[in-house]
């Protein structure tokens, strides 16, 4: 049952309510696009020290393993697990609970900061590697913009994971805006830049 069929609102009021809900949804989509990356349990990551780029380990589908060659203890086939809890996302190692706090794509553990670099993402049951082709990225961003303008949620949701996990991001200076993009020195008019790497990986 809806409000119109119950006679609580008329068609004009229903139209207005639908427009407000639609505008609120797409505003949220735009806000999410401008947010920094977020940890996703269906993805795989290299966990690297921010200062020197040294590989601490990997996270694959929320399972953490140190980058070491020694065999693990007999009780477990992995070193740790990532849990999403009400107060955030945490890495737990064996019986040591909540040793690493993950915020966005950064982790702090034992006073050290690490960056999570996405290496794979599961999309509709298929594993995809981050997009590294600038021309394909530009085409996907343009297609997503058209889908957003036409309010085509299905098309937008299919494109978004590939854009998010790509090796590129929207230019922080011109924000890929038509008028500002052509003269932007940061992205050389492309509207996007390569995602920054940790200091030790540059």
What fraction of the residues are assigned to beta strands by DSSP? 25-35%
From the N-terminal CA to the C-terminal CA, the straight-line distance is 58 Å
Number of DSSP-assigned strands: 11
Please state the average pLDDT score: 84
Structural shape: globular
Please estimate the helix content.
25-40%
Low-confidence stretches: none
- Spatial order of strands in the largest sheet: 1-2-3-4-5-6-7-8
Specify the structural class. Answer: alpha+beta
| Major pleated sheet | 8 strands, antiparallel, barrel
Integer-rounded radius of gyration: 21 Å
- The run of helices and strands is HEEEEEEEEEHHEHE
Count of individual helical segments: 4
What would your notes on this structure say?
Among the domains are: 7-36; 43-123, no CATH class. The protein is an alpha+beta fold and 202 residues long. The chain has four helices and eleven strands. The N and C termini lie far apart (58 Å). An eight-stranded antiparallel beta barrel has the order 1-2-3-4-5-6-7-8. Strands 10-11 form a two-stranded antiparallel ribbon. The model has no long low-confidence stretch (mean pLDDT 84). The chain has helices at 11-34, 134-149, 153-164, 178-181; strands spanning 43-49, 55-60, 63-66, 80-85, 88-93, 96-103, 106-109, 112-123, 126-128, 168-170, 192-194. Helix 2 (134-149) runs antiparallel to helix 3 (153-164). Strand 4 and strand 5 form a beta hairpin.
